Amino acid sequence: MDLALVTGGSRGIGRATALLLAQAGYRVAINYRQRAAEAAQVVAEIEAQGGSAFAVQADIAEEAQVVRMFEELDRHGTLRVLVNNAGILFTQCRVEALTAERIQRVFATNVTGSFICCREAVKRMSTQHGGQGGAIVNVSSAAARTGSPNEYVDYAASKGAMDTLTKGLSLEVATQGIRVNGVRPGPIYTDMHADGGEPGRVDRVASGIPMGRGGQPDEIAQAIVWLASEAASYVTGTIIDAAGGR
Ligand code: NAD
């Protein structure tokens, strides 16, 4: 059966994406780091809708855990879609307060984790290695364009690196049956902002969005799933801004 892996799939944009991928007919692997109960709930939701899913634990910042996760996936079917969705940010601060430890933690998940997941996915999807091809979608951020001054330049820089990964990898694997694209969400109503110390952030910045509002997880999931689908069969190296016109 064709598999789709969503990293950080237990809540927010990842959860919405997992639900849509299941509706599209994939058996969905819901990766989670710590939230086993939430991941199990997403699996149950998918199964209640007649879909197929399972939860798979791994901290994507840990290479050995990522390798083990992909080996576990191999027992469930053929990987055709990878959504690099897991991402973190920390409390807002100016550059004077940034520590090396914080920068390294942000990059370990958002950049290194996404890289390692791409590597493992390419090994399995590549038609040059006997695979059936596939699609990778990297969840970046509008921050990659704005740089998020006075908030989290570390997070913004990590998303800029993800965009460069999307561009470079898309060209490297273009003849191997693998498309690599990305989505840059604007402010979306998820729990990530509460984790970053400002639960009301989306409402605060909404007035600066041309459409005058924040987005919903499903509005990002739709773009991700379109890029992963056959409808986008001639699209690679593209990063869609889903940010209300920002
Ligand atoms: P979220 O915090 O609700 O979801 C992120 C998920 O990733 C969580 O389940 C978290 O546990 C998981 N995760 C974090 N680090 C992990 C790791 N090392 N290994 C495995 N899982 C890990 O946030 P969200 O808003 O749904 O964010 C999803 C993606 O969208 C992120 O990459 C984020 O940067 C991006 N994004 C979000 C917004 C927004 O406004 N919410 C805007 C732009 C981009």
TrEMBL record:
GO molecular function: oxidoreductase activity, acting on CH-OH group of donors
Gene3D superfamilies named among the record's database cross-references: NAD(P)-binding Rossmann-like Domain
All residue ranges annotated as the Ketoreductase domain in the record: 2-188
Keywords, sorted A to Z: Oxidoreductase
PROSITE patterns named in the record: ADH_SHORT
Protein origin, superkingdom: Bacteria
InterPro entries on file: KR_dom, NAD(P)-bd_dom_sf, Sc_DH/Rdtase_CS, SDR_fam
Family, per entry: Belongs to the short-chain dehydrogenases/reductases (SDR) family.
Protein name as it appears in the record: NAD(P)-dependent oxidoreductase
Lineage: Bacteria, Pseudomonadati, Pseudomonadota, Gammaproteobacteria, Enterobacterales
